[in-house]
Amino acid sequence: MAIRVQAQPFDAGQEVNAMHAANVGVGAVVAFVGYVRDFNDGREVAGMFLEHYPGMTEKALNKILVQAQQRWPLLRVEVLHRIGALQPGEPIVFVGIASAHRQAAFDACNFVMDYLKTQAPFWKKESTELGPRWVEGRQSDQDAAERW
Known about the structure:
By secondary structure, this protein is of the alpha+beta class. It has one domain: Molybdopterin biosynthesis MoaE subunit (Aldehyde Oxidoreductase, domain 3, Alpha-Beta Complex). It is built from 4 helices and 9 strands. The strands form 2 sheets. Strands 3, 4, 6, 8 and 9 form a 5-stranded antiparallel sheet that branches. The chain has a 4-stranded mixed sheet with strand order 1-5-7-2, sandwiched between helices. α2 packs antiparallel against α3 and α3 packs across α4. The longest helix is centred in the last third of the chain and has 18 residues. Belongs to the MoaE family. Heterotetramer of 2 MoaD subunits and 2 MoaE subunits. Also stable as homodimer. The enzyme changes between these two forms during catalysis. Keywords: Molybdenum cofactor biosynthesis, Transferase. It is an enzyme of class 2 (transferase).
């Protein structure tokens, strides 16, 4: 299990390859990469700033990953989340799940993302043409997490 919260960019392809290289028993790697969009709710977004509470954020992410490992037979679980100033097109988050079989990897990846969106303490502020604004949680994210 690996959790990284960092300002530096990452290469999702390298992250996926490293997940498989760590264990030849891996039969499936499912990965999700989230990117900064150049729009949100009909507004242009020039950039985003992500804040977190060091220690608390990693603890919340660890709890999510432990829950995933308790539900599915996983060989490796990784979450990499960026913080700081980001521009449209830059990656924000990487969730990688390795398992012997694909369905466990798909389900666990969905679970981790649904809980990350609703349980992890990150705060996002977008820079828009109307000025900065905090991004609020969406009901659809809550609904997705409740299905588990």
